[in-house]
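Reading a protein record of the kind used here takes only a little practice. To see the layout at work, look at the sequence and tokens printed below.
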Amino acid sequence: MVRDRNVLLLLIIGPVIYSIYYPFPYSPEVLREVPVAVVDLDHSSLSRQLVRLADASPDIEVTRVVDSPAELEQALWDGAVEGGLIIPNGFRRNVLRGETVNPVVLGNGAYFMFNRAEMLGFAGAVHALSSDLGRRHQRVVSVSLVESSERGAPVRLALRAASNPTGGYSTYVVPAVAVVVLQQTLLLGICMLLGTWRASGAPFDLKRRRNRLAVVLAAATICFANALYYVGLVYWREDYPHLGQLTDLLIVMAVFSLTTAAWAVAIGSFIRYREQAVIYLLPTTIPVIFLAGFAWPVELIPAPLLALGFLVPSSAGIQAFLNVDQMGASLTQVVPELMSLTILLLSALILIFAKKSGPTK
């Protein structure tokens, strides 16, 4: 493996490079200061207060206040802003009358992260204004400041995300995609190696079953070492949460590594030339990500595709890794995922040993 530079790049260098460059763009974790515009058709003190509250939100930044929806639309088309708020005419008058007023929020639906930040920023500003108006009304009827605050929010919800405290995108996506990287780099590297052996002759006789098992164990060792590198160093460097027990996590790593290695050798036994590994297997990476059930909820994946995902180690591997490492699940709570990996491991070993000849010349 070390003598083949391309295989070495995939098995060792590739995961290291990925661990450096992929988390970097998401290091801020949460999108902040999304540029937005406000259409103020009321031009009152209350509408200006709403604009100030919106600009105070950490999620958005009010870069311009315009006088017509047409100006806002043009700014959206030009890309100068990513969303906007339309304050209707008669805003202050209707509020003082006790009538419900509905400002219009425009979000960029093409980018869900932008859209989420805009909605949160504007919703927070409107809620803060409504609360302030409620407290003012309570004080008018001779209620103390503390009592008016309690009346304005009699029920308060405290939100705490255990496995992703910051609500960040990097903490959500990198640990899941890292499992796919471990699998796909091992798959491509082993298949290229076996394709080379088939074309030029293996360094040892792969017709013997114990030699095929040796390749599986060697590949599993590399996968296990890369998994230790990610969980022990990369996740620590990026400050991703670790809530599970180390012994449980090591068992998950071992089962996943063995399954992925056997799966790669089983597929590689059908590769005639090393180029075929890149041509046939590289395009499978994106479908594998979507079949894993983290980019899109498992409950919404069609049943045939969900069944197809059980044939890929990363589908169960991602759930096992995330549940144990980031969510603090015990080993007994991930038994279904481990059973799925074990069945896939046994199936791959049966296929490897049942094949009459390995990828020899």
About this structure: The mean pLDDT is 84.
